[in-house]
Amino acid sequence: MKIAYREIEGRSGAYWLLLGVLGAVTAAGLAAAWTMEHRGHIVTGMTNQIVWGMPHVFAVFLIVAASGALNVASIASVFGKGFYKPLAPLSGLVAVALLAGGLAVLMLDLGRADRIVVAMTRYNFTSIFALNVFLYTGFFVIVALYLWTMMERRMNRYSTPVGYAALVWRLVLTTGTGSIFGFLVARQAYDSAMLAPTFVAMSFSYGLAAYLLVLIAAYAWSGRTLDVAVLRRLKNLLVVFIAVVLYFVAVFHLTNLYFARQSAFERFVLADGGIYPALFWGGQILLGSLVPMALLAHPRLGAARGTVVAASLLVVLGGLAQMHVTIIGGQAFPLELFPGMQESGSFFDGRVHPYAPSLPELALGLGGVAIAGIIVVLAVKLLAFLPERLDGRVAESP
Amino acid sequence: MNGHDAGRRQFLAWGAGAVATLTLAPGVLLLQSAHGRAPVEAASGAVRWGLLIDTDKCAKGCDACVTACNRENGLSGGTRETDAQWIRKVELKDLRTGREASLPMMCQHCEQPPCVDVCPTGASFKRADGIVLVDKHVCIGCRYCMMACPYKARSLVHENLADQRPDVPRGKGTVESCTFCVHRVDRGETPACVRACADAGHGAMVFGDLNDPASDIAQRIARYPSTQARADLGLNPGVRYQGI
Fold first, then answer.
1. N or C terminus of chain B with fewer C-beta within 10 Å?
2. A69 is a domain residue
3. Does residue B135 sit in the same domain as residue B202?
């Protein structure tokens, strides 16, 4: 049957309140960025030892989740599952919004954020960072095209080929994001080809969780019907994605544990590294993976709206914990200048580097999330992204 | 034309040649011996500047090289986690044998510098003579080079700066590291740390052209065993260590 998409009304007090809250958080993020620009990175918790901090935890999470948020659209047009078709436009919108939020954080954290024109006009093509600039801008263009083919009836017939392009592009994009770390030969936490596919797997999980949160909120707050069949399918998919991430994470650490030269780092991140093992086991593994899997696998409550929301929130928080362990834990572990030697020096050689995020960096990171939120909240009011109802009749399997 | 005239002309030619040689030779020879270069002249790929550090001569507790670097380049000398340190003393202890060593650590001016590979804008670059630098006008402060450097040789300028040295421009929000005192090297001098080490009577640092077989550094490297920090990475640093 024909799917009727319609803009949400967006005139209620609650709508404006939501927009106001998101606007306030964005403003706080921009104020933080201005302070960092004006006074320098001294106002952050980042140092010459922990050079990437909380902004990068948020930015990389958002960028990785952006790629994964496109899952639903890909399943609809590339794998031809009609069931997901009504859900696809929102998937593209969430993807674009998350990427915009993540890139805003990354750009505003630069030591010289005012030199964005330099970053956009001078490229060193041996740098995976420079290549990512193309992958990110290309992602916007391709997803915009993709949305056009999905939302404009005359363009519908092109949605499959554009969908293929978007699928390939986002796999390359997340490979590129994982490779930002994977290509760092100098640091023991990184320097692994495993990171690229692991990031791809993580994108599926984090992106779908973010998508589910937006979908459920949009339907609940606009008073539209969201059938349990839709949630059941999507939550089953989320369970599979979480399991795939666990597999990659397990292989990564098992490989490292096998290499004697990596055992000190593994001991640090898995056992005696203070906050990092706590975030890894408690945040990433237990709360971010095992608990949501158990919740979603529950035969009776697994597909309930509240359960899916709780599980998705946990996956998002687990993802932030994982980024914290990967990005900050990886830098906290001291570099080995002369392997096998004990080192000490005025630049904190041979010591675990402490890190305490400051308020401005937290505000900047959360500001990125709020920017993504604003884009979604405005877009669903201005354009017809959401089907009027998502019940069993619309969401039929072909 | 008679023989007398020919003899006179030849004498004049020789005389002119001699005068020209006497006038130009000191300059030419000086340039050759000191490897300095005029500001308009491009850095030469025939030269590879390098530094050999003899850790047996490097005294534990001596930081003459560090203070000289700070003074020369206008660094504060602070050692907070946010302060820039272009050169630092590192104490090593071999846990298996108990042997200790003290050495200065700075940008290793790699032949294959990871910082240059990862820099998105090309601000990190290697000069033809092997000196790795940051173009402060193109650096966007992303710090990817700091993530990539195996030697933790780079610093971000975290605060506003005052009292900069005219020879050594720096900038808040950009990344910087040891330049081998490129402004001194281009004048035909040695880096400030090397000079200070010699003045302190240690002479633990030898600076010179690795490509010139006649240079002190090349001869020492050929004669005595030396190691590179993280030689396993295959970056071929321009800085070598002796005695560890």
1. N
2. yes
3. yes
